[in-house]
Design goal:
CATH architecture of the largest domain: 2-Layer Sandwich
Shape: globular
Number of strands: 13
Largest sheet: 7 strands, mixed
CATH superfamily of the largest domain: Dihydrodipicolinate Reductase, domain 2
Helix content: 25-40%
Oligomer: single chain
Structural class: alpha/beta
Length: 349
Amino acid sequence: MTERIPVTIWGATGFAGAELLRIFARHPHFEVVGAVSRSKAGISVGAAHPHLRHVYNDLTFISPEEANSLSAAAAFLALPHRASAQEAVRRLEAGERVIDLSADFRLHSAEAYKNWYGVDHPAPQLLSEAVYGLPELHRGEMASARLISGVGCNATSAITALLPLARAGLIEEARIECRVGSSEAGANADEGSAHSMRSRVLRVVNPFVHRHMAEVVQELSMEQSSFTMGVTAVELVRGIQCLAHVTLNRQVREAEIWKLYRAAWNGEPFVSFTPAKPAHFRIPDPRFVIGSNRVLTGFMLAEDGRRMIAASAIDNLMKGAAGSAVQCANLMFGLPETEGLDMMPVYPA
């Protein structure tokens, strides 16, 4: 395919919007025809994202009203929850395909959405057709989709850590902890994310229930009572390390676990295993995936064969947001899944 596919990015001033711009700057098929921001309309993209100035020196942010006059094949929505769903309705009515990075279409039912997010869903009529945006699970549904949801970054990390065990029916209980960088809180600083409050902390947030747990329960087809999920803020800007302390429902040998992980992830273009040796590399470290769309998975099994740590590491802004979104869009438009996403991790980071 040589024809360029015109796309717009809504909410292009945030961290996820910046990552989409970074990916599309070198994507061979997608072309950004509109970077949408009501607050920064008329300002150059390089002024908000200095690292992209050299590739977008002629592009300025446009208002939503200006974006309505554009002819785009797809809209990437990096907007706040609820606002994203409302814009998705308008984009679909305009004949565009939608890749939504918010939480608005991740859950299958309006009841589940209200239970986890505390408000009525703004566009419940679209929930039945939205495809959950993790290609490793829903690749086959994406080619014909009009609407693909975003993925929760913590959910992505937890799902990739636990999927091999869940498919084998081995999980009796899992206590999930995600150690997360500050960019997970978004580009707009508040009291909790200001540097003086955030730096050098080990702050435990919601130690038993996190909203992204809804996606884990849904995508692994497990009972909520089997899980707890918490988040710890650590001294990172980007990255998530997920540690799932799992109690298995029967005794297993390490060779069996390796077989399950290979069966789940062999052939997946963005998923890798950590090595068996040396031991300190068995648990994935986010610094080995920063800047890329990659996932590292690994595990350690206790001597009793019933307890283990299932782990993963991702860049929350890439595989946990913009990278997965582009991976989904590639499939949606019949492109090679890895197109524009072959960047190597940046190390050391």
